[in-house]
Amino acid sequence: MAGGYVKLWRTTLDSQVMTDDWMCRLFIWCILRANYTPGNFKGQPLSPGQFITGRISGAAELSVSPSKWYRGICRLVEIGFLKYEANSSWTTLTVCNWKTYQEDDAPHRTANEQPADSQRTASDTTSGQPADTIEEGKKGRMEEGKKKEEDSSEVEVPPAKPTVKAQERHRPEPMAETVLTFETSGTTACWHLVRPQVEAWQALFPGIDVMQECRSALAWTQANNRKTAGGMMKFLTRWLSTEQNKAGKQIHQRATEPVSRVATLEDLNNPNSYKQIRSQ
Q: Are 38 and 45 contacting, i.e. CB atoms less than 8 angstroms apart?
């Protein structure tokens, strides 16, 4: 994978990954790591745009912690850039729309391109055209272009109407490990909660049922304002943290409540002692 190249489209400037340096770095890493031809890994066929990795190996390549690498991958899955498949041995990542953006539609374009400036200059000189004539032609074209710009600046151009494609909202496809789908506002229509994220939260919030709390949060977003896809992780983390604190307070309250004494046979034979126990 030392040679070759990939295409980086200018539309990337308008994508969500450009708002974060780490996400942009991870975005480019995925494109560079993806296979550009069909392949095979331990009997598993790989299509163009797919590659095999793992939390530890991927984090080591980018010199970050495995948790930061995994959170970044989940974010790219949310915005519809990646598809995520994992088993007990490795993780398969698929770059979405690989053929659309990376397929080489003109493999021999370089061989047929216009000659270099040095070659054109040599041929022009040998053809007998004087250098002064070339310079005069350039000057005339520059003046003509300047005049056209001045004329066009006087014409009022109506603002361009947004195209239908620009008005459409992106809707990421659900993955194999999707457990809940949240409808969101903004340019992304939905956000998928995957099982590995639920398991990671369950380890961080052991005092609550994380899956049930996520269902409650889903019902809340359906009845109230929807969140953006970019804010879903923060919203759910804050929700789970609040419920964890509530559960901790309830456990502490039960632990500090006084325990009533159970009456014994001796207490039953002593009327005064029995009355004290009943009054408690």
A: yes
